[in-house]
């Protein structure tokens, strides 16, 4: 975890400082900054810096990669490995693409309601992503611990990790939901001082709370079947949640019930509720023994032998003891 923590923390700090200086012109007298066009350049440079930092410190200097990387060789690229990689990569990539298309579709519906509603919708997604910073970190930790448990072949550790991670997510989301319901106007002030924006946040606090909580819960639950190698199940569940749940739910709620943010958030929350139920069903139905077996087969690691005793057994001595007269 240390390389990812160091690289991500450095990237976050550089991204913040770079945008404050180059975009807003802070710390430089009489210079207004380069404005928003500099944002993608700063972010791109920071991403490449993180890659360089990972290679230079942890690969070139500390040589942390040597224990798990045998070096460059075309013999390592086999048809079976490429097919296995594509079977896991393509569903994950399409799932991410589906999420972006779904958000674009819902944003288009929000734009038809009104400019203030669209502004609040866009701001609310930023709040969701801020919350996702914490839940995403928790989900990442759950994924790492699950991978370690599967690598060890321990179904008990895998089950315990999934349960502990889910309970921690529920506790955090209860606190987060309470904040969204209790201080909606304070959240609105992060983005705007317009009273209309604050009123809209307060008006739709309950469906927005459901939206934030269920979205983050789905992200946390998603990591468990992903770590277990059930990428196809995650992909189909994501498609169902997006295109059978959220988008139709938003259309139905804004067309036949309330054509405002209250109806829009209700439709989105209903879609995420469907997604949470689907992910929960996948997790409950996991055969952890089979998951461990598949994980070890994918990693091509030899299965560790498990004995009844930790003491070495000398077969020759044992045979002599059994054949000697009493």
From TrEMBL:
Q: Which GO terms describe its molecular function?
A: antiporter activity; xenobiotic transmembrane transporter activity
Does this UniProt record's set of keywords contain Transmembrane helix?
yes
Cellular component terms, GO, for this chain's entry?
plasma membrane
Instruction: Locate the region Disordered.
Output: 298-326
Q: Identify the domain of life.
A: Eukaryota
Q: Which UniProt keywords apply?
A: Membrane, Transmembrane, Transmembrane helix, Transport
For this protein, the parts annotated as crossing the membrane are 12-28, 48-65, 129-150, 162-188, 200-221, 233-257, 269-288
Alphabetized PANTHER family for the sequence: FMN_FAD EXPORTER YEEO-RELATED (PTHR43298:SF2), MULTIDRUG RESISTANCE PROTEIN NORM-RELATED (PTHR43298)
Q: Which family does it belong to?
A: Belongs to the multi antimicrobial extrusion (MATE) (TC 2.A.66.1) family.
Task: Return the protein name.
Answer: Uncharacterized protein
Taxonomic lineage: Eukaryota, Sar, Alveolata, Dinophyceae, Suessiales
